[in-house]
Amino acid sequence: MVVFVTHSEQETVELGSRMGKLLGAGDIVLLYGGLGAGKTVLTRGIALGLGTRDMVTSPTYTLMHRYEGRVPIFHFDLYRLGGPDEVLDLGYEEFFYGDGVSVVEWPERLEYLCPEEYVKVEMEAAGDGIRKITVNAIGDRYSRFEKELKGL
Prior knowledge:
alpha/beta, single chain
């Protein structure tokens, strides 16, 4: 587990960019945190680290945005979904287990569909633009990610 504290939106984007540089095809990042915790801001940084030039916005009403970088980036926002059956309707497997990086806001909606291995990011707003961001590697696949992130 690695804990970061960011003091501005820009610092959160920079942390995300560092994370994005470590991610590759087939990686999954699950973002936990309440409304306004900075999940989309961190995703913007992850996408930058993966080389996208696209403007990253919340896919709340479209459920998923795709961005092009050195690998495709699939940005999910499951907030509006009622549960895993609606996630199944999205055909999530082709994205989660495909050739891109999947970043998921509100992964609680996955329930039994939650992957066995992923990068778990817990975000907490602490006021005045300050965010506490805890990154935890779930599964052997991501132990390298966590070690490299600690070294940055």
